């Protein structure tokens, strides 16, 4: 578990270097990635991975909004790093490889699951954004 | 607001288009580009501005009677630092902290600026990310070491080839077949155990995971054209990576 947390932190932070995020936000990017991956790992053992991904993304979105407020920067900077460990890149690759190996049934399964997972991520991000907006409106 | 302060209509259109162009070229979401452009126009005295943004083109008009202006986007990268800076400039502009002339000066600086991190640092970052992903996907530490080397080399090859051949699909295909070949060779040489784990970790810096998510998100927000074209771009990249790896694996196994 601790190894997973450290690697997810490094993976998210280094991925943010690939996306050229501002230097002073790298630590926060890694942090939101680590949080998302931790929630995912905790939920994945009990529920389906789509559900786990959804809740992990909601957490990532909420944390990113807090960071974005305090840094006065767009939310995308922090949410990108946060969702990096969750995006089904490996699954998309797996689907494509199976297609090329003529294993269409497994390929289609993986492709559909990759699509569902990215749908869950997008829904989670939008939900946390909507909740944040409602929260701010309620305070006013 | 008088004209001497805000400049002519054309200057304002130019300013908004420049801001939109920088944001779109560097990976901002579609709605943020549209939002920023209309907000900047509103703060400069054109509350009825409209914009239509897709990944390859920006259309912008200040009012219903004005003819729309168009800007073509040819190259796209991800540089979130520039997005953050343009966002900052637009916020200051609407809070009247800076004038439109100052805003244009700053936007031009941002447009010309180099990436935040040098190429070698990005390659090192890609290498580290690849190694970490191998462990996150339940690979062992003996697989992480070759993944570290392979992903760094693969990312460097993709970046170099993209400058050389211009066609992104071909660059990604070649880089991923290099990744497949190197992973296979490493396992053959006794460094690393599972070829699959090494490959999955190493292709992660190339995989369009973010693009897929952005595509679904654009679709949900009602930006149908942007969503579909981003989805197509993501599919092409995934296809290139899959083909590259599959090509090598079908030869060697």
Automatic annotation (TrEMBL), chain A:
Query: What is its subcellular localisation?
Result: Cell membrane
**What processes does the entry annotate via GO biological process terms?**
succinate transport
Membrane topology is: Multi-pass membrane protein
- The residues that cross the membrane are 49-68, 75-93, 113-132
Q: What InterPro entries does the record point to?
A: ThrE_2, ThrE_Dicarb/AminoAcid_Exp
**UniProt domain Threonine/Serine exporter ThrE: residue ranges:** 4-130
GO CC terms on record? plasma membrane
Instruction: Give the UniProt keywords, A-Z.
Output: Cell inner membrane, Cell membrane, Membrane, Transmembrane, Transmembrane helix
State the family named in the UniProt similarity comment for this chain: Belongs to the ThrE exporter (TC 2.A.79) family.
List the protein's name. Answer: Threonine/serine exporter
Organism field? Paenibacillus rhizophilus
């Amino acid at each position: 578990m601790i190894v997973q947390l450290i690697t997810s932190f490094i993976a998210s932070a280094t991925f943010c270097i690939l996306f050229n995020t501002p230097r002073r936000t790298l630590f926060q990017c890694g942090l939101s990635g680590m949080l998302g991956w931790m929630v995912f790992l905790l939920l994945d053992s009990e529920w389906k991975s789509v559900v786990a991904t959804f809740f992990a993304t909601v957490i990532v979105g909420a944390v990113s909004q807090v960071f974005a407020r305090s840094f006065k920067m767009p939310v995308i900077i922090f949410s990108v790093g946060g969702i990096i460990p969750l995006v089904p890149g490996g699954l998309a690759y797996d689907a494509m490889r199976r297609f090329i190996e003529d294993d269409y049934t497994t390929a289609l399964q993986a492709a559909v699951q990759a699509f569902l997972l990215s749908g869950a991520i997008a829904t989670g991000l939008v939900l946390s954004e909507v909740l944040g907006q409602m929260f701010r409106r309620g305070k006013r | 607001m008088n004209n001497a302060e805000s400049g002519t209509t054309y200057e304002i259109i130019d300013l908004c288009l420049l801001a939109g162009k920088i944001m779109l070229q560097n990976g901002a979401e579609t709605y943020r580009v549209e939002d920023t452009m209309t907000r900047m126009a509103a703060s400069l005295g054109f509350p009825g501005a409209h914009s239509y943004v897709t990944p390859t083109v920006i259309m912008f008009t200040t009012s219903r009677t004005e003819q729309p202006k168009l800007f073509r986007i040819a190259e796209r990268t991800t540089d979130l630092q520039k997005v953050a800076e343009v966002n900052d400039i637009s916020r200051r502009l609407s809070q009247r902290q800076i004038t439109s002339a100052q805003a244009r000066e700053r936007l031009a600086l941002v447009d010309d600026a180099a990436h935040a991190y040098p190429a070698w640092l990005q390659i090192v970052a890609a290498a580290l990310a690849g190694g970490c992903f191998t462990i996150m996907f339940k690979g062992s530490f003996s697989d992480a070491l070759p993944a570290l080397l392979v992903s760094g080399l693969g990312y460097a090859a993709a970046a170099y080839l993209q400058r050389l051949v211009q066609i992104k699909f071909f660059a990604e295909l070649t880089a991923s077949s290099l990744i497949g070949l190197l992973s296979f060779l490493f396992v053959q040489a006794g460094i690393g155990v599972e070829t699959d784990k090494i490959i999955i970790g190493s292709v992660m810096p190339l995989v369009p995971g973010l693009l897929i998510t952005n595509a679904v998100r654009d679709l949900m927000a009602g930006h149908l054209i942007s969503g579909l074209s981003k989805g197509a771009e993501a599919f092409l990249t995934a296809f290139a990576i899959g083909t590259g790896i599959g090509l090598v694996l079908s030869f060697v196994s």
